Amino acid sequence: MSKNTNIKSSMIAATVAAGLFSGAALALTPVQLSDTDGDGVISAEEITAARDAYKSEVLSQFDADGNGELSRTERRAMKDARYDAALVNFDADGDGELSRDERRAAKEARKAETEAMLDVNGDGEVSAEEAAGFEAVKQERGEGRHGKRGKKGGKRGEMAADEG
Ligand SMILES: [Ca+2]
Ligand SMILES: [Ca+2]
Ligand SMILES: [Ca+2]
């Protein structure tokens, strides 16, 4: 009898583990980047497209009242879900919370995964070409968020019109 139970519970454990794994990929790096046009780099457009896809995915999961945007409550549900997913992967000591170290590990893992996605040719390094699209998107966002303008100076274009 007890043997049977053991087998059963180990089967359940395996099923649960498999389920966690498929969820884990999603949780780790929410936005899945891929070289959809196959030109060997992930362009800014491809990143933007991936973001949009992710947004609609999030909406389909967490927009409970279906009004097309996330209310505060809905957003909270999303964060909770993400936190739970992070716990599954990174709660190393199993206390049900993410300590600072565990958070850092999670962040590192996400970064590593992003780099792995950017490394389209899989040589283990993100070349300048491979990183270009990502950097472009990052800069765009950075400027939007911190409003770092100024220091743009530069009077290009003044020495044009020399030829002819
Ligand atoms: Ca591409
Ligand atoms: Ca912990
Ligand atoms: Ca590479």
Approximate strand percentage: under 5%
Q: N- to C-terminal separation?
A: 95 Å
Radius of gyration: 22 Å
Q: Fraction of residues in helices?
A: 55-70%
Alpha plus pi helix count: 5
**SS-derived structural category:** mainly alpha
Mean pLDDT across all amino acids = 80
Hetero groups in this structure are: calcium ion
- Form type: globular
- Profile the largest sheet: none
What do these coordinates show?
The chain has 164 residues and is mostly helical. It has a domain at 30-143. It is built from 5 helices and no strands. Helix 1 crosses helix 3. It is globular, with a radius of gyration of 22 Å. The model is unreliable at 12-27 and 150-161 (pLDDT under 50). The structure holds calcium ion (CA) (3 copies). One calcium ion binds at residues 91, 93, 95, 97-99, 102.
Explain briefly what this protein structure is.
The chain is mostly helical and 164 residues long. Helix content is 63%, strand content 0%.
Distinctive features:
164 residues; mainly alpha; single chain; binds calcium ion
What topology emerges from the helices and strands here?
Elements: H1 2-28, H2 44-62, H3 72-90, H4 100-118, H5 128-146
This protein binds calcium ion (3 copies).
